[in-house]
């Protein structure tokens, strides 16, 4: 499993790097797949409402009403129909890449199991939504879908009478058609909204909208596609004839070739087996242990910055229990904490400039990598530095592997997330023998722990608490965030060398 993930991650990384050459980094669509999917759903909803105005929800009227939209009112309803179809296809593509990316980047296990587990049924809902949509056109493709679906349903032993013959003889009733329309227009969308709300309910501060430029670009692409290749129907249904299918939508209707070639039993088996496998993935080896953050009230001022910064809403402020003046204290919900350490970086009492002759304690920190252990590691590495242009590099486990930068003049410290770095640590290292500090981390817009690199940048530029003190010489501090690919490693090497050359030794 680990080997599969590593290989997949390499593929995803190289695709992302290719896109980073064509897009500004913050607009890379791979970094906004969840919000892009929401955006595609908006297009589907708005275009769907428009075409519903002209759509006849009965067997005889459905096909002619869709033909009217496509040919007579092509300039508006036709375009809306095409947008409806292409945005639905785009949503499936973005959902699948989103899913594979979360898996390859190892963001589906441990406490993240919930988002993964609740994501899987959305696949079924979205696909069934698409299938019912194709059904409503009531052309030969719809008839093919109806027949193959009936075969699938007939295979289930509990269903009493065979449905297949109804669809072959075109004996479909208006009532049945209305049921399909209800499912497509209301039942399934409402279920999907509920499921998506559950899916993201354990994640805090979600940006449901992609960056504006990316949204406009995606919309214009879909619009251009709608104009160049408008969505059209197949021939109308002919009673007693098996439909001839020329164009299958592989994003939504891929189960039907399976029914045709292997039979309904295999189609159920393959789809069900794939779904079960996906749902069980978070518990398959190797299992991920979690070691959540711990609060030390003796060091906590109750400021609440840790709760504000937590990317998973795992910290809540509760009434103080230790009789101190502060009103509140942080409480960690272990089932939500991903152990990123961002809270530790956001706590003012994590400053290594405190308690210089004693064990450093913070108001909130990771028991397996305390701020004292971090200060000790930094202290030893500073002592071992030699030569000129001595730099300490703080990296994150999920970005560039900073160990590749080690040299006599360069010490490296790898953190679970760059957000774990208290800004005062920069002050500390510059006072204790380093000529400069380089802070690395995941690429912009792509933090493994969602906000680590954003919060770090804001702390260093003074936009977010705890701020880097103004006394720190900014020419001795630099940030450069890249992924762990070979090309970017070389780029980082060059950046580091240029930074080192720019540094004058401290007095
Ligand atoms: C209708 C389809 C879906 C939509 C609209 C959607 C949307 C989102 C959004 C907006 C987030 C939050 C991203 C962030 O702010 O960091 C998210 C997180 C996540 N999604 Fe989905 N998702 C969908 C389907 C899926 C599927 C099918 C899976 C996998 C089976 C999945 C797995 C995950 C996981 C594991 C996370 C959590 C990542 C983390 O912990 O940082 N999603 N999704």
Question: Any descriptors?
Answer:
alpha/beta, 51% helix, 17 helices, binds protoporphyrin IX containing FE, two-stranded antiparallel sheet, Cytochrome Bc1 Complex, Chain C, 8 strands, 2 domains, 507 residues, elongated, single chain, 4-stranded parallel beta sheet
| The CATH homology group name of the largest domain | Cytochrome Bc1 Complex, Chain C
**Tally of distinct domains:** 2
Mind telling me the CATH class of the largest domain? Mainly Alpha
Query: Uncertain spans, ≥5 residues at pLDDT below 50?
Result: none
* Helix fraction bin: 40-55%
Task: Describe the protein.
The chain is an alpha/beta fold and about 500 residues long. It folds into two domains: about 280 residues, Cytochrome Bc1 Complex, Chain C (Up-down Bundle), CATH 1.20.810.10; about 210 residues, no CATH class. Helix content is about 50%, strand content about 5%. The protein has 17 helices and eight strands. The strands form three sheets. A four-stranded parallel β-sheet has the order 6-5-7-8, with helices on both faces. Helix 2 runs antiparallel to helix 4, helix 5 packs antiparallel against helix 11 and helix 10 packs across helix 11. The chain is elongated. Bound molecules: protoporphyrin IX containing FE. The site of protoporphyrin IX containing FE has 25 residues, from helix 2, helix 4, helix 5 and helix 8. Protoporphyrin IX containing FE binds next to helix 2, helix 4, helix 5 and helix 8.
